[in-house]
Specification:
GO terms for molecular function: ATP binding; ATP-dependent DNA damage sensor activity; four-way junction DNA binding; single-stranded DNA binding. Its main location: nucleus. One of its GO terms (biological process) is telomere maintenance. Belongs to the RecA family. RAD51 subfamily. It is globular, with a radius of gyration of 26 Å. It contains twelve helices and 15 strands. The strands form four sheets. It has an eight-stranded mixed sheet with strand order 8-7-9-10-6-13-14-15, sandwiched between helices. Strands 1-3-2 form a three-stranded mixed sheet. Strands 4-5 form a two-stranded antiparallel sheet. The longest helix is centred in the first third of the chain and has 26 residues. The chain is of the alpha/beta class and 340 residues long. The protein has two domains: 67 residues, no CATH class; 247 residues, P-loop containing nucleotide triphosphate hydrolases (Rossmann fold, 3-Layer(aba) Sandwich). The protein binds adenosine-5'-triphosphate (ATP). The site of adenosine-5'-triphosphate has 13 residues, from helix 4.
C-alpha cells in the first residue's frame, strides 16, 4: 500500500482513493487542536513533502489519464476493432433490416420512435424473439410501460421454432425485467454492467441485445419539474446504455415517443440532449389507408444514421414476425448472425 501525504490546516482524515485503490491519501493538519499531529516537521520538510506530493499527483494524473481518457487511434486500427467487435443482428424483418443496413449493430444504441400504438413494442418483441430463436443469443428486455405480452412473445416464438423444447429454450434466453422509474432502470443497467446478469442455461454468457421499452416512460416524470436533476438522470441513463453497448458488444434497442409540432411534423421525444444518444433512429408510423389499417401496416422511416442516407422508408406489416418460416432449416447456415 502506498501512502500520499497531504498537508492541510483543516482536516485530519484518511481517505481511500477509489479510482486508485493501491494509494491511500492521508490528510494531516498542523492545527493546534490536533495534538497527535506531526509537530516536529520543519518548514523545509514541509516544502519537500509538497514537492514530493506534486510529483506524486502528476504521476497519479498520468495513470488516471492512461486508464480513463480516450486516446486517438488511427483509422486502420479503428477498422480492425470494428471487425473484431461488431456483429449485425437481424431484426427478423426484411424491411427494418434494409433500413438498418442489415440489422442492429452491436456496440450501438438504436432508437425506435413513434406515437402510441405505432407498434414499437411489437417490433421489440419481434427483435427479442428473433435474436433468441434464430441467433440463439440472450436478450435482456427492460419493460417500463407494462406493454410486454408473454402470450404475444410466445406467439412469435412459436412461428419461428416448432418444437416445445426449442420454444422453451428461446423463451429462456429472453430475460424480462419490469421497471417503472428511472432509479430502478439505472439499477438494472448497473447490475447488468457489473456482471449481475443471470447466465443462460448453457452457462455461456451470450448476451447480444438489450431492449428498453421505453426510455421516455421513466424519464418523463423526472424531466418536468426539476430540470437539472432530470437532465442529469437522462445523461446517466444515456451513459449506462452506451457503456453496456460498447463494453459487452451488445446491440441496444430503445423506444421513445414523438412530439407532434403545430405544423403536424413529428420530432423525437426527450429533446436535444437525448437526440445525440442513439446512433440510428427509426420513426414508425401508421400507413393511413382504410385497407391497410386492418392488417397493421406500418411505415418505418430512417431519421438518423451514419451508414445510410436518411429519410428512406419501408413499409411492413406488424404481423410479419408471425409468419412461419417454411424453409428455415435449409437456410440456417445463411443466417447473418455475425456479419463480421
Ligand atoms: N399480433 C398482432 N399482429 C399485428 N398487429 C398487432 C398484433 N398485436 C397487436 N397489434 C397491433 O399493434 C399495435 C400496438 O402496438 P404497440 O403496443 O407495439 O404500440 P406502441 O407503439 O408500443 O404503443 P405505446 O407507445 O402505447 O406503448 C396496435 O395497433 C395493435 O393492433
Amino acid at each position: 500500500m502506498n501512502y500520499v501525504f497531504v498537508s492541510s490546516h483543516l482536516f485530519y482524515c484518511t481517505i481511500t482513493f477509489h479510482f486508485f485503490p493501491t494509494y491511500k491519501i492521508v490528510y494531516f493538519s498542523s492545527h493546534k487542536h490536533n495534538s497527535h499531529m506531526k509537530k516536529d516537521s520543519s518548514f523545509t520538510d514541509c516544502i519537500s513533502s509538497f514537492r514530493t506530493l506534486s510529483l506524486t499527483l502528476v504521476a497519479i494524473n498520468r495513470v488516471l489519464l492512461a486508464q480513463y481518457a480516450s486516446f486517438p487511434i488511427n483509422g486502420a486500427d479503428l477498422y480492425d476493432e470494428l471487425l473484431s467487435s461488431t456483429a449485425i443482428l437481424s431484426t427478423g424483418n426484411e424491411s427494418l433490416d434494409k433500413l438498418l443496413d442489415s440489422g442492429l449493430y452491436t456496440g450501438e444504441v438504436t432508437e425506435l420512435i413513434g406515437s402510441p400504438g405505432s407498434g414499437k413494442t411489437q417490433v421489440c418483441l419481434g427483435v427479442a424473439a428473433n435474436v433468441a430463436c434464430e441467433l440463439k443469443r440472450n436478450v435482456v428486455y427492460i419493460d417500463s410501460t407494462g406493454g410486454l405480452s408473454a402470450s404475444r412473445l410466445l406467439e412469435i416464438v412459436k412461428s419461428k421454432v416448432s418444437t416445445a423444447e426449442q420454444q422453451l429454450d428461446a423463451l429462456r434466453r429472453i430475460y424480462v425485467t419490469e421497471v417503472f422509474d428511472i432509479f430502478s432502470m439505472l439499477k438494472v443497467l448497473q447490475t447488468l454492467r457489473t456482471g449481475g446478469f443471470p447466465e443462460s442455461p448453457s452457462g455461456s454468457s451470450s448476451l447480444k441485445a438489450v431492449i428498453v421499452d421505453s426510455v421516455r416512460a421513466v424519464l418523463l416524470p423526472v424531466i418536468g419539474g426539476n430540470q437539472i436533476e432530470g437532465l442529469s438522470l437522462m445523461m446517466q441513463l444515456a451513459g449506462e446504455l452506451r457503456m453496456i453497448s460498447r463494453d459487452f458488444c451488445v446491440a441496444v434497442l430503445v423506444t421513445n415517443h414523438v412530439i407532434r409540432e403545430s405544423n403536424g411534423a413529428v420530432k423525437p421525444g426527450l429533446g436535444r440532449s437525448w437526440s445525440h444518444v442513439p446512433r440510428t433512429r427509426i420513426l414508425l408510423q401508421h400507413v393511413n389507408s382504410e385497407m391497410t389499417t386492418q392488417n397493421g401496416l406500418r411505415r418505418a422511416t430512417l431519421l438518423k444514421s451514419s451508414r445510410q442516407p436518411c429519410q428512406i422508408s419501408e413499409e411492413f406489416c406488424l404481423g410479419s414476425w408471425n409468419h412461419h418460416k417454411v424453409v428455415k432449416e435449409a437456410k440456417e447456415d445463411s443466417i447473418p448472425e455475425e456479419a463480421h
